[in-house]
């Protein structure tokens, strides 16, 4: 990519949960577009270091792109606030927040524990809420526009039996995005969701190792394959850039056609 064609030159982006999977691919892609990147991890510093090395390589040889890793549990409000504050201190500002970190727990509804419910809601919804709030306060104080991109799921629309808390968190994220789009538009701040289907990442390790389940899922994907993290990263790069300035409050599905595939057998 030539320097002139890079979409995010001089921007600073924070990608939560970027030590692996979709978050890592997003961090690398935004660096390719010229952004400085804050890489957040909870428990895998080695993954975050790997992302950092790839971010620096993606940024090119001119050293215009830099990265910085930060440990924070995005399910804890105090951690999330510290993460945003430290990102701003390190790079002097923050323009783009990608709320990517997410977890899911598989259990029959009637067996879900309070601890598992809280873990899912805290990371997938509460942490996103307060990270976004901290970024918005920074943007309002510095009178600058900004971009928020939430990594949601097809399950903000589609039921996923045995993942009730996960579905509730993603449905909540859909409405949070719609609401904030209206409330933040007067300040030039846009917010959108990217909703992946089945992507080949660590969150799907169990499924990937279960051929009958995997084949059943593939039958439901019109494009006939799982997605790759880079399939998600490319639309995030677009939504983080000025090319998407007139887009807010909506969801982009990256699912190979999974969501709307219903066929009578
Ligand atoms: C979930 C995966 C699931 C996929 C498709 C994602 O949101 O994290 O576990 O395979 O949706 O159902």
Can you give a write-up of this model?
The chain has 265 residues and is of the alpha/beta class. Helices cover 43% and strands 14% of the residues. Strands 3-2-1-4-5-6-7 form a 7-stranded parallel beta sheet, with helices on both faces. Helix 1 (21-32) crosses helix 8, helix 3 (77-91) packs parallel to helix 4 (114-141) and helix 4 (114-141) runs parallel beside helix 5 (164-184). It is globular, with a radius of gyration of 18 Å. The mean pLDDT is 96. The structure holds beta-D-glucopyranose. Residues 104, 153-155, 160, 197-198, 203-204, 207 line the site of beta-D-glucopyranose. Beta-D-glucopyranose binds at residues 104, 153-155, 160, 197-198, 203-204, 207.
Share of helix, binned:
40-55%
β-strand number: 7
Query: Count of DSSP helices?
Result: 8
Strand order of the largest sheet: 3-2-1-4-5-6-7
- Label the overall shape: globular
Stretches where pLDDT is under 50 for at least 5 consecutive residues are none
Rounded to an integer in angstroms, the radius of gyration calculated over CA atoms is 18 Å
Q: What ligand molecules are bound, each kind once?
A: beta-D-glucopyranose
Largest sheet: 7 strands, parallel
What is the average per-residue confidence, as pLDDT, rounded to a whole number?
A: 96
Order of helices and strands: EHEHEHEHEHEHHHE
Q: How far is the N terminus from the C terminus?
A: 46 Å
């Amino acid at each position: 990519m030539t320097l002139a064609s890079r979409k995010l030159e001089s921007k600073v982006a924070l990608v939560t949960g970027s030590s692996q999977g979709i978050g890592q691919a997003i961090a690398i892609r935004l660096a390719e577009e010229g952004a400085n990147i804050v890489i957040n991890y909870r428990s895998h510093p080695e993954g975050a270091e790997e992302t950092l090395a790839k971010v620096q390589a993606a940024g090119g040889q001119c050293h215009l792109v830099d990265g910085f890793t930060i440990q924070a549990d995005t399910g804890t409000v105090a951690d999330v606030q510290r993460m945003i504050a430290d990102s701003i201190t390190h790079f002097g500002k923050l323009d783009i927040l990608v709320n990517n970190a997410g977890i899911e727990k598989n259990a029959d509804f009637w067996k879900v524990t309070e601890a598992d419910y809280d873990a899912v809601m805290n990371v997938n919804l509460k942490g996103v809420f307060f990270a976004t709030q901290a970024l918005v306060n920074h943007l309002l104080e510095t009178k600058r526009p900004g971009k928020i991109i939430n990594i949601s799921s097809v399950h903000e629309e589609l039921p996923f039996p045995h993942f009730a808390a996960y579905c509730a968190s993603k449905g909540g994220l859909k409405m949070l995005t719609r609401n904030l789009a209206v409330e933040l538009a007067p300040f030039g701040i846009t917010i959108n969701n990217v909703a992946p289907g089945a992507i080949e990442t660590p969150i799907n390790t169990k499924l990937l190792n279960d051929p009958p389940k995997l084949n059943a899922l593939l039958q439901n994907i019109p494009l006939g394959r799982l997605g790759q993290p880079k399939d998600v990263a490319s639309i995030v790069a677009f939504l983080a850039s000025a090319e998407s300035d007139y887009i807010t409050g909506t969801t982009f599905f990256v699912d190979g056609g999974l969501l709307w595939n219903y066929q009578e057998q």
